[in-house]
Automatic annotation (TrEMBL), chains A, B:
<keyword id="KW-0238">DNA-binding</keyword>
<dbReference type="GO" id="GO:0003677">
    <property type="term" value="F:DNA binding"/>
</dbReference>
<feature type="domain" description="HTH hxlR-type">
    <location>
        <begin position="15"/>
        <end position="113"/>
    </location>
</feature>
<keyword id="KW-0804">Transcription</keyword>
<dbReference type="InterPro" id="IPR036388">
    <property type="entry name" value="WH-like_DNA-bd_sf"/>
</dbReference>
<dbReference type="Pfam" id="PF01638">
    <property type="entry name" value="HxlR"/>
</dbReference>
<dbReference type="InterPro" id="IPR002577">
    <property type="entry name" value="HTH_HxlR"/>
</dbReference>
<keyword id="KW-0805">Transcription regulation</keyword>
<protein>
    <submittedName>
        <fullName>DNA-binding HxlR family transcriptional regulator</fullName>
    </submittedName>
</protein>
<dbReference type="InterPro" id="IPR036390">
    <property type="entry name" value="WH_DNA-bd_sf"/>
</dbReference>
Length: 121, 121
DNA sequence: GATACCGGTTACTTCAACGGAACCAATGGC
DNA sequence: GCCATTGGTTCCGTTGAAGTAACCGGTATC
């Protein structure tokens, strides 16, 4: 009995998981979702824990998540401005795969780094 | 009781999950791991199901996974050449987070695309 | 002699993500 | 009058991932 080798139809031509709105290991999208897990936050409340992010990149990240229906943006007509970002139900579904990846990193990152150090050096 | 807002130490400065060797939604790395799940495959056996990938990009993807200790490369001194790629134990640990992301896409991709169509349109 | 096969390599180009710095409006406080 | 605050925007540049096309050695087959 020979093991079947995947043929050219093994993957969906428009590979669905390629369309995931955030990438694991992506720099910022996953952080935003995790930060919003316990309720809405303001722009600066998101920005503070994500130390290295610039306003520009955080704005881009949030717009992208908003476009994909993962977060909502609510602006209040106050001065100074107040804007709140909140996870949608759809956005909340991202928590499971994100957690799976965080768990992976917690368990296996040392082994990865060791392999990489050996390869590089 | 006010909800605690994450401060600047919420994330590890060198955010560990940012170092995941493949990215979900990444174009090729995840496919390679999934294809190798049931045993070693040759270069062309990997390339065939990944229709759109070029030799160059597949080589780069495999080198990167090899560097991170996720796959091994075994070349046999034959003509024509034979090279087999195989998942390591470490590489096998990637199957869980990848599956979590494939499950996510299967369940939620339609909702994402709908949100995106509404936003764009 | 020409062609096909396998597992690539090399040079060049394109594109998106990311980053730095400057700037903004409206208001409140000193 | 001057500065600080909030939530951004704009311009510019860098980087890396990805794609295109051409080419390779060594053998076997036609």
């Amino acid at each position: 009995m020979t093991r079947p080798i995947p043929d050219e139809d093994f993957f969906d031509p428009a590979c669905p998981s390629s369309a995931m709105p955030i990438r694991v290991g992506e720099k910022w999208g996953g952080m935003v979702v995790v930060l919003l897990e316990n309720g809405p936050l303001r722009f600066t409340e998101l920005k503070r824990p994500m130390r290295a992010v610039t306003s520009k990149v955080l704005t881009e990240t949030l717009r992208s998540l908003e476009r994909d229906g993962m977060v909502t943006r609510t602006a209040y007509a106050e001065v100074p401005p107040r804007v709140e970002y909140e996870l949608t139900d759809l956005g909340r579904t991202l928590l499971a795969p994100i957690q799976a990846c965080r768990d992976w990193a917690a368990a296996n990152l040392p082994a990865l780094l060791e392999a990489r150090a050996g390869w590089d050096g």
